[in-house]
Specification:
The chain has 286 residues and is an alpha/beta fold. The protein is built from ten helices and seven strands. It has a seven-stranded mixed β-sheet.
Length: 286
């Protein structure tokens, strides 16, 4: 016959196993500790980022309309006025994520300490409700930022995002906005949408359910491949801002050669060229 002492080790192991299966408790965070955080879904915590890696807003060329629109939306949010969740979509390397970080910094310079920027990784989207609960309790106005957001076939994480953006009973907390970047306008690959259309009993309804995710963003900002004049404007802006003092003719010739070698023109390619140029000149980009 088993005694209490015999059962105790077994009960302890069962309790430990249940603890491991249970989701981690949401830990309070010092939201004033930094202006930037990274959400750690595994530990249900926000890790402070002492210095956010960013480019100054004035250096972002070829995105004036997008810049002004996002800046205005973010400024309204910081002041406690209505603002929209925003999807920045389009060509690779054209400054989508750079714009989010630059606008956040610009608004915080205008209204010191007004906004926290909290990055969530695409694979942690299912944990958004936990993060929202934490931010609601913290009280500080915060922008949740997901870079390169997209979904593939058999990926149901988009349902969590839909509920958080607008469809849930609780809704989004008043002190939180969601900004996302994506190369895809509807956040899903074309073959994924076509697969839904071909296999569903009611094709139009199946596709509508997935495409409606992007409709939950009140603001869409499109980014398109830049032409040569815009590419030159980016290079010249960096050249002036960092005091590289390279003649325009030389700058243009080297920039064209660099872009041909990369097979594309974009803000990312322009920055990579400037890093190479500064290194050859022995100058810092601080």
């Amino acid at each position: 016959m088993n005694t209490t002492s015999d059962l105790l080790p077994l009960l302890t192991r069962i309790a430990d196993a249940l603890d491991r299966l249970a989701p981690p408790a949401v830990k309070p965070v010092d939201i004033a500790a930094a202006d930037g955080f990274v959400w750690n879904a595994e530990s249900a915590s926000m890790d402070p980022v002492p210095a956010i890696a960013r480019v100054d807003l004035r250096l972002l060329q070829g995105v004036k309309r997008q810049r002004d629109t996002l800046l205005d939306n973010t400024r309204r949010f910081a002041k406690g006025l209505p603002a929209n969740n925003t999807l920045l979509w389009g060509a690779r390397g054209m400054g989508k994520s750079s714009l989010v970080k630059a606008v956040h910094a610009a608004v915080n310079q205008e209204i010191p300490g007004s906004l926290a920027l909290v990055e969530i990784h695409r694979e942690d989207i299912a944990s958004l409700p936990q993060l929202l609960k934490l931010l609601k309790q913290a009280g500080r106005r915060s922008i949740i930022f997901c870079d390169d957001l997209s979904f593939d076939i058999a990926d149901n994480a988009y349902k969590s995002l839909k509920a958080v953006l607008e469809g849930g009973i609780e809704g989004r907390p008043d002190n939180v906005l969601f900004y996302a970047t994506s190369n895809r306008r509807h956040l899903m690959a074309r073959d994924m949408i076509e697969n839904e259309r071909s296999t569903a009993i009611n094709p139009s309804e199946a596709v509508e359910e997935k495409v409606s995710l992007s409709d939950r963003f009140g603001l869409w900002l499109g980014f398109h491949a830049c032409d040569q004049d815009t590419f030159f404007a980016m290079i010249e802006g960096y050249n002036e801002a960092f005091g590289l003092d390279v003649p325009v003719e030389q700058l243009h010739a080297e920039a064209v050669e660099w872009s041909v070698g990369r097979g594309s023109r974009s803000g990312r390619v322009a920055w990579q060229y400037i890093q190479d140029l500064a290194g050859r000149l022995g100058k810092s980009l601080d």
